[in-house]
Amino acid sequence: MSFTNGKQVVMTSPSEEPRNPYSSGQQGQNQQYQQPGYYELNGVPQQPYYNQQAHSQPGPYPQGNFGYPPAAHFEGAQLAQTSMILGILSLFVAGVILGPIAISKANKAEREFNTAATVGKVTGWIGTIFGILWVAYFALMIFGALMFSMEPSFSEF
């Protein structure tokens, strides 16, 4: 005997002999119990739960890549990741160039593919601002150096 779902399942042959569920075709057992999927529930033979006709007809399930998002999602995620990488690089290297590229890729990922690309957009803006400040600082330093070298010397007096 064994229990399944709280109900007693009797594993005996019709002649009340205990039957081995792992054997195939012993004498003294009814042949209907030899078929796969048949068992007894409270002494009543039961048929398998599955329906044979369901296997021959296609089910109502949609066809496609189960467990995987569509290809458009991959492209949007790729754009978002690229904008994030460019935005982070723009914080340290060529922010005036890489920052706007990161912003444009983030906007494209959000508009066309409905993918969140906030990190790329924010780091792109910060990198652009840092780049503009760096260029302004560098330009002022060059301008100051040129002005200092062009001042007349007071040592002639």
Structure commentary:
The chain is mainly alpha-helical and 157 residues long. Helices cover 46% and strands 8% of the residues. The chain is built from 3 helices and 4 strands. The protein has helices at 71-90, 95-113, 118-150, and strands spanning 2-4, 7-9, 39-41, 44-46. Strands 1-2 form a two-stranded antiparallel sheet. A two-stranded antiparallel ribbon has the order 3-4. Helix 1 (71-90) runs parallel beside helix 3 (118-150). The protein is rod-shaped, with a radius of gyration of 38 Å. The termini are far apart.
Question: In brief, what are we looking at here?
Answer:
The protein is 46% helix and 8% strand.
N-C termini distance: 120 Å
Helix residue percentage: 40-55%
How would you classify the helix and strand content by structural class? Answer: mainly alpha
In DSSP terms (H or I, runs of 4 or more residues), the helix count works out at 3
Mean pLDDT: 76
The major β-sheet equals: 2 strands, antiparallel
Radius of gyration over all CA atoms, rounded = 38 Å
Order of helices and strands, N to C? EEEEHHH
Shape: rod-shaped
| Spatial order of the strands forming the largest sheet | 1-2
The low-pLDDT segments are none
Strand segment count:
4
In percent, how much strand structure appears in the residues? Answer: 5-15%
How would you summarize the topology of this molecule?
Layout: E1 2-4, E2 7-9, E3 39-41, E4 44-46, H1 71-90, H2 95-113, H3 118-150
Antiparallel strand pairs: 1-2, 3-4
